[in-house]
């Protein structure tokens, strides 16, 4: 029997307008960074985690309004909670997947199967057991987990702008990890929310829907971006020097 978690989400405030949330009882493979960005006119939540417990409720002490939920891409560790939010943003190439997920997901290693678990381990994400290490409450049944369909209220493409009133993010189309992967770029501050296009861990480019040549092009583009800080879809944030190290390592491996 798995233990019952005291709380499902942890959070850390990184500034007046930025809070990081994460799910500590989800294995690292599926534990995405959930970013809450406070704006003057509206807030964003960038990715929503697995959808195991209510992210909307977890955000209530942080914000007094319902944020717009952005999907950097539609893998279920990033969009599991999108169904809770009345306003959502997703790239055109993955809007259909958010509306009607083809992969409803699982928390059970037995459903993933030993071959798939072994592949994840070879790629740098070993785990022993299922995808969660605790339950959100005593009556939760991991076998009932299912990614729910979410509304799509705005479809974006390269160059579109998401305006919060006091700051604006340009949408960068960053395919490779998935067809419709996007980043959110704040040129004024040099801040990039990169999703899974780039993070400081093993990058997955051999999964279904990935495209290595597209990923190479994305990496070359990111290397030239004048970033000050990257807030990624997994693992810690990093600056421009580390971005270039990560990009160069990938290009050496794949070019």
Task: Describe the protein in words.
The protein is α/β, with parallel strands linked by helices. The protein has one domain (10-254): Ribonuclease Z/Hydroxyacylglutathione hydrolase-like (Metallo-beta-lactamase, Chain A), CATH 3.60.15. The chain has seven helices and twelve strands. The strands form two sheets. The protein has a seven-stranded mixed beta sheet with strand order 1-2-3-4-5-6-7, with no helix packed on it. A five-stranded mixed beta sheet has the order 8-9-10-11-12, with no helix packed on it. Strand 1 (10-15) and strand 2 form a beta hairpin. Helix 6 (212-223) runs antiparallel to helix 7. It starts with 9 loop residues before the first strand and ends with a helix. The relative contact order is 0.15. The model has no long low-confidence stretch (mean pLDDT 97).
List the helices and strands and how they pair.
Elements: E1 10-15, E2 18-22, E3 34-37, E4 44-46, H1 55-59, E5 68-70, H2 76-79, E6 88-91, H3 95-99, H4 109-112, H5 114-122, E7 154-156, E8 161-163, E9 168-173, E10 182-186, E11 191-195, H6 212-223, E12 229-232, H7 240-254
Parallel strand pairs: 4-5, 5-6, 6-7, 11-12
Antiparallel strand pairs: 1-2, 2-3, 3-4, 8-9, 9-10, 10-11
Helix pairs in contact: 6-7
């Amino acid at each position: 029997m798995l233990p019952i978690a005291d709380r499902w989400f942890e959070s850390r405030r990184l500034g007046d307008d930025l809070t990081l949330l994460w799910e500590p009882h989800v294995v690292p493979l599926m534990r995405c960074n959930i970013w809450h960005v406070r704006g003057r006119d509206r807030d964003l939540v960038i990715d929503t985690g697995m959808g195991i417990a209510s992210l909307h409720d977890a955000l209530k002490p942080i914000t007094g309004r319902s944020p717009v939920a952005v999907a950097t891409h539609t893998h279920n560790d990033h969009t599991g909670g999108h169904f809770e939010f009345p306003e959502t943003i997703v790239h055109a190439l993955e809007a259909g997947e958010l509306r009607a997920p083809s992969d409803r997901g699982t928390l059970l290693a037995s459903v993933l199967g030993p071959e798939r678990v072994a592949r994840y381990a070879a790629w740098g994400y070993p785990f022993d057991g299922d995808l969660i290490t605790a339950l959100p409450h005593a009556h939760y049944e991991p076998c009932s987990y299912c990614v729910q369909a979410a509304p799509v209220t705005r479809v974006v493409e390269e160059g579109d702008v998401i305006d919060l009133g006091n700051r604006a993010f340009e949408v960068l189309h960053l395919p490779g990890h998935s067809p419709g992967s996007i980043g959110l770029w704040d040129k004024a501050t040099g801040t990039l929310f990169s999703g899974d296009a780039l993070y400081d861990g093993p990058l997955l480019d051999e999964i279904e829907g990935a495209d290595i040549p597209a990923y190479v092009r994305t990496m070359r583009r990111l290397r030239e971006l004048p970033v000050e800080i990257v807030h990624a879809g997994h693992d810690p944030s990093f600056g421009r020097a580390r971005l270039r190290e990560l990009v160069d390592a990938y290009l050496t491996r794949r070019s």
